[in-house]
Amino acid sequence: MTFAPEHDVPIPYMQRTRDYYLKLGYGTPYRWAHFDDVPFTPLTKPLARARVALITTAAPYQPGAGDQGPGAKYNAAAKFYKVYSDVTDAVPDLRISHVGYDRKHTTAEDLNTWFPLTQLQQAVKAGRIGALAPRFHGAPTNRSHRVTMETDAPELLQRCREDAADVAVLVPS
């Protein structure tokens, strides 16, 4: 076994994001939310009997909002600012041009890499999870900790409760 070459290192996305935030004109670098006390609890039943909700940051396709296809340049016009929900019995037309990701090393052509609904449907059929919640939910990426904590997170929790979800899988794009 040999070591990887010196240049083969993880992409320093956290520092890049901090630097980008400053370039956008914000007075301080981006600060990721993190907590001393993690608000998660253990499952009360085996995953094979649990109902799973899917939460994504992917956006519904907006025909009038410019290029949103795989590999499209960053497209702020395609952002969304309110939690949305859609059914889990069909694969929707979602896009990720509104978020920053490494467009040099990926094209985002494979929806399954950033929206694993099909894999979750297969996991239900295979008995690995009990059921999918009837809806998946979209979480906005508006860069505001306050709006996320005070508006979006409570709305997502309410929708997951309405769907009787036992667990949620959060998939950031």
Describe the protein's topology.
Blueprint: H1 13-23, E1 51-56, E2 59-60, E3 84-87, E4 94-95, H2 117-125, E5 131-132, E6 135-138, H3 145-162, E7 167-171
Parallel strand pairs: 1-5, 1-6, 1-7
Antiparallel strand pairs: 2-4, 3-6
Word description of this protein:
The chain has 173 residues and is α/β, with parallel strands linked by helices. It has one domain. Helix content is 22%, strand content 14%. It is built from three helices and seven strands. Strands 1, 3, 5, 6 and 7 form a five-stranded mixed sheet that branches. A two-stranded antiparallel ribbon has the order 2-4. The longest helix is centred in the C-terminal third of the chain and has 18 residues.
Oligomer: single chain
Shape: globular
- The chain-level structural class is alpha/beta
Helical content stands at 10-25%
How many structural domains does the protein architecture include?
A: 1
Gap from first CA to last CA: 33 Å
Instruction: Tally the helices.
Output: 3
Sheet having the most strands: 5 strands, mixed
| H and E order | HEEEEHEEHE
